[in-house]
Design brief:
The chain has helices at residues 22-36, 38-43, 67-81, 102-115, 122-126, 166-173, 200-211, 217-224, 238-259, 287-297, 324-327, 335-364, 375-378, 419-429; strands at 65-66, 141-145, 154-158, 177-179, 197-199, 230-236, 273-279, 285-286, 303-308, 392-393, 397-401. With 432 residues, the chain is of the alpha/beta class. It has a 7-stranded mixed sheet with strand order 1-2-3-6-7-9-11, sandwiched between helices. It has a two-stranded antiparallel sheet with strand order 4-5. The protein has a two-stranded antiparallel sheet with strand order 8-10.
Length: 432
């Protein structure tokens, strides 16, 4: 790990006053309700608490970009055009042609058959969380614009797990660690630390959600978010871990573009002022990732994590510490240091082997879902950079809310995890 220096800090935040701001938290949890409770609204349209309660004086309730709407419109255009499924080696039209996303549209049809949806209209797709995701793990995101005293501010909201959607749920299960530095490309890093490892499923999904050429975050904010704007990144559950990784990526990419001249994503001079609010965050990476993330978020207090103490999701993936995780702390030729390094080598090899076996499966599953933004400049690496540290921890400043087991939880095992539960607990316990 590089030694700490204040000159290494890129002052990208905060997007507002540092630290927890109640008005911000109560606004952003509503964006998560909009995304993560869409399936509840579809099944129970009269369930009023499943609808977002966005204060229209602070934020435009209608996102200025909604990937769900874009996917629905493109699927209909693809079917109307009668585009064929390309054969191996077949040349496709220009980079922005929807034909490149044929596998995504086939996935929509497969999900529709599996869930009994027969009428695939644009509205049906847009309103169904099983049908409106993109990429291999069916992610979705929104871009909101502030109003009133929030005018000029923007917020990216990333969807959490859709449990009825197999690709979305599978993303959570690919927990083997990958190195956070130069992830899939030398142009994409979530950390400066050579020891930082991140959850494979979250990292791959974040890579796709950032870089998808049609629906990705980077091409959209390049068009819609002016340089220097305050930019919040928010998410709940799976979306919380991904929001943390998006925050980390944007920090490093903007810093590198300004200081080192490497600017494959057009971020030079963007200088977005970042702040993240995440709810029910599963652990996105190991101790070294969290430590390096703190280097550029701790002083300005611009990475807020709100977890419910009896929500099981923030407790996974399990922290499986090993002697390897101590080996980097014992230097020199002391007997203890040499013993720790010797013992850790065996377990490290086994854990790295597990990652090496699982990681190609994850990578191969992403093929043919579309194209990547600035593909010619990101120069993908051919070999997976697998890790071996399972010392997973939260990343950001954790604030706890305290759930109360309810009688009706016996009918809903994840009651304490829902975005609507976080809405309630934040309102009751974190107000000023």
């Amino acid at each position: 790990m590089k030694p700490f220096s204040t000159t290494d800090e890129y002052q990208s935040g905060p997007a507002s006053a540092g630290g927890y701001v109640h008005e911000e938290a109560t606004s952003f949890v509503e964006f998560c309700v909009e995304l993560d409770n869409q399936d509840d609204r579809l099944q129970h349209p009269k369930k009023t608490d499943a609808w977002p309660r966005i204060d229209a004086t602070l934020w435009d309730p209608h996102p200025i970009y909604d990937s769900r709407e874009a996917v629905a419109a493109d699927y209909i255009a693809y079917k109307k055009a009668g585009s064929p499924v390309p054969k191996a080696g077949q040349e496709l039209p220009a980079d922005d042609d929807v034909a490149y996303w044929w596998k995504l549209y086939a996935q929509i049809e497969d999900n529709a058959r599996r869930t009994g949806v027969s009428d695939l209209t644009e509205e049906t797709i847009r309103n169904n969380a099983n049908l409106n995701g993109f990429g291999p793990w069916q992610n979705a995101w929104l871009l909101y614009q502030g109003r009133g005293r929030n005018a000029g501010k923007y917020a990216i909201a990333i969807r959490g797990t859709v449990f009825s959607n197999t690709p979305s749920a599978v993303e959570d299960l690919f927990f083997q660690p990958l190195m956070a530095q130069s992830f899939l490309s030398n142009a994409v890093s979530f950390s400066d630390s050579s020891l930082a490892a991140i959850h494979s499923g979250f990292a791959h999904a974040t890579f796709t959600t950032l870089l998808d050429a049609r629906y990705g975050i980077l091409p959209v904010i390049d068009r819609k978010v002016p340089s220097g704007s305050p930019l919040f990144v928010v998410g709940h559950s799976q979306g919380a871990a991904m929001a943390t990784l998006v925050h980390a990526f944007l920090h490093h990419a903007m810093r590198d573009a300004d200081r080192n001249g490497r600017d494959p994503f057009g971020l030079k001079g963007k200088a977005y002022r970042l702040k993240s609010y995440v709810f029910a965050q599963p652990k996105p990476g190991n101790y070294q990732f969290a430590a390096e993330f703190s280097r550029f978020t701790q002083n300005v207090d611009n990475a807020i994590v709100i977890n419910n103490d009896i929500d099981p999701v923030p407790k996974v993936p399990f922290t499986l510490q090993a002697s390897e995780d101590l080996a980097t702390d014992f230097k020199g030729r002391f007997l203890v240091a040499r013993a720790v390094h010797f013992v850790s080598a065996f377990g490290k090899s086994i854990r790295r082997l597990i990652s090496a076996v699982g990681e190609p499966i994850v990578r191969q599953s992403a093929a043919s879902y579309g194209r990547f933004y600035q593909y010619g400049q990101i120069k993908p690496v051919d070999k997976e950079r697998t890790g071996s540290s399972w010392d997973f921890v939260p990343a950001g400043r954790v604030i706890l809310v305290f759930g109360t087991p309810a009688q009706d939880q016996q009918d809903d095992i994840f009651l304490q995890h829902h975005a609507t539960t976080y809405r309630k607990l934040i309102g009751e316990q974190l107000g000023r």
